[in-house]
Amino acid sequence: MKQALIIYGGWEGHAPKETSQFYQTLLESEGYQVTLASDFEPLYHKEELKRLDLLIMNWTRGELPDEPLQNVTQAVAEGLGLAGVHGGFASAFQASKGWLFLTGGCFLAHPGGLETTYSIDLTTNHYITANTQSIPQLTTEQYYCLVDPAVTVLATSTFAAKDHPNAANQEVILPMMWIKKWGKGRVFFQSVGHSLKELKEPTIQTWTKRGFLWATRNTLADPLKNSQYSESSEKRMRK
Predict the structure, then answer these.
(1) Which of 78, 94, 156, 166 is most buried as measured by Cβ atoms within 10 A of its Cβ?
(2) Bridge partners of 81?
(3) What is the DSSP letter of 78?
(4) What count of other Cβ atoms lies within 10 Å of the Cβ of residue 1?
(5) Which residues form the ThuA-like domain (predicted)?
């Protein structure tokens, strides 16, 4: 049985407990054993982290002390999967260069606010996105992120020039979902998820769930090299 830990907390505007329980449900439907923690205490135990298969961080803002950060960084390098969604991941611990380097990106702004309507465009054929379609219209926060060029971008969104001051009168296309590797570990992020409503949108839910499965320790040898999705590959992902 795969072992997952969800750390939640920080700014309450993202409903960290409720969204974490939703992630728990997604993983338990795949046979995972899931533990929820509302503080960083589990991250101080190196050996316990090494026995986990997946860590989901769901902590908006805040500061992560050096010791748990180093423990997580080392555990991911040794194969622990790391994943997160929206501000619980990209807006977490923004003063920590180590965290930003590990995760591959940082939330900067959502220029149009909650009522921004935009599309999401798939860019890469991958297990996470296979047999799904781009989203032509979604109304929620549109995350403007600074992104590590080392990531593999799975989907982007386009910011209209009118919505932010640095567009220089042209559209800006930025990643909204990416994956990366860190040593032997895998990292997954997607930016939609201000509330449960957005997380339960069918395509967003599919990407999120598959992203968690993909990041998990000891899944397919290298899904990045699989150009075509198949039912058999999804079954192997679940083992």
Answers:
(1) 156
(2) 54
(3) T
(4) 7
(5) 4-215
